[in-house]
Design a protein that fits this description.
Layout (H helix, E strand, L loop, with lengths): L1 E12 L3 E12 L4 E11 L10 E5 L11 H9 L1 H6 L4 H6 L4 H7 L4 H11 L2
Antiparallel strand pairs: 1-2, 2-3, 3-4
Amino acid sequence: MRIVLPYYGYLITPKQGLTDLFYLVDLDLVRGEVVRVDLVTRAARGKKILGNWCRKSLVAGVLSKDAPMVWLQELREAGVWHRAVRGEDLQEMLNDWWCSAQGEALAGRGLDEALAAREERCR
């Protein structure tokens, strides 16, 4: 079973200020592996900008210095995938995102399809 889970975070840099980070994580729940992680960023700079999305694919397990992914290690250590296979905590994981309704809509889709739908809603 595979599912795409969304995650929201933020990064503050001297040059860009506040940058919202939206991750889409493609998980294989049976094998307990991260298949792929996509990072979608939107520069806030003090005001909401609905456009100007950019996409950056990250190889799972490779940490980018400008994309803090400590949470990924935390999920591994917490054994989230094993609990998710039993159906526990899955809804809680989805609700962690900034908008659970959109998160639920992403669940179960392929990563490319989910990302395209996410970008379309944000235009």
